[in-house]
Amino acid sequence: MQRLAPRIAELRDEASHGAFQQLVLEGGWEIEASATHSFKFDPLVYPVSGNKRYQGKFRFAKHYYPCRRV
Asked: What is the DSSP string of 24-66?
């Protein structure tokens, strides 16, 4: 039983890598750019509610939105 779990994980990894190879790298999917799913940036609307924002001491130097305390 102890050897079974690692073998199952190994087979699962092989299957997922094979599926990725077939679908993405061998042309199974058509990928194209489209404005339909573009990101809309509104600097006045922060995408995380106030009670879920990071409140730690570290100040991130690179942040997509202006950093301000709530």
From this structure: IITSSS-----GGG-----TT--SS-GGGS--SSPPPSS-SS-
Residue with tokens 């990101």: 39
pLDDT digits (tens, 9 = 90+) for 14-46: 999 988 888 877 777 777 788 887 887 787 887
Phi first, then psi: give them for residue 35, nearest 5 degrees: -75, -10
- Between residues 68 and 17, which one has the greater pLDDT? 17
Determine the Cα–Cα distance for residues 38 and 55; give it in Å rounded to an integer: 30
Q: Residue type at 46?
A: Y
Residue 45: phi, psi to the nearest 5? -120, 105
pTM beyond 0.85: the answer is no
As a whole number of angstroms, the distance between CA 10 and CA 29 comes to: 25
